[in-house]
Design a protein that fits this description.
alpha+beta, Alpha-Beta Plaits, 3 helices, 4 strands, 37% helix
């Protein structure tokens, strides 16, 4: 069953975030993931959520997603992303 990461990211340093943005696609792909949405202009339909930059990733299953997120490949990129941005991220199982 597919699994997803949904992130709302506010970039604090564009120059540093570019390093993350350039490096992460290969790692996502290595673990079977792919982008469904990245950036764009999110618009709230209901409620008070005002996302800045939304990213949605799809993985074949929750095991692949967890392997990606907790991998040695992604660990230095987490540090890079967190230094260049702030945000929230969740994962969930598809239906």
């Amino acid at each position: 069953m597919k699994a997803y990461i949904i992130a709302d990211i506010e970039i604090k340093s564009e120059a540093d975030y570019v390093k993350y943005r350039d490096a992460v696609p290969a790692v996502i792909e290595k673990y079977g993931g792919r982008y469904l949405a990245r950036g764009g202009s999110p618009q709230a339909l209901e409620g008070s959520w005002s996302p800045t930059r939304v990213v949605i990733l799809e993985f074949p299953d929750m095991e692949s997603l967890q392997k990606f997120y907790h991998s040695g490949d992604y660990a230095p990129l987490i540090t890079l992303r967190q230094a260049a941005s702030k945000g929230s991220m969740i994962c969930l199982q598809g239906v």
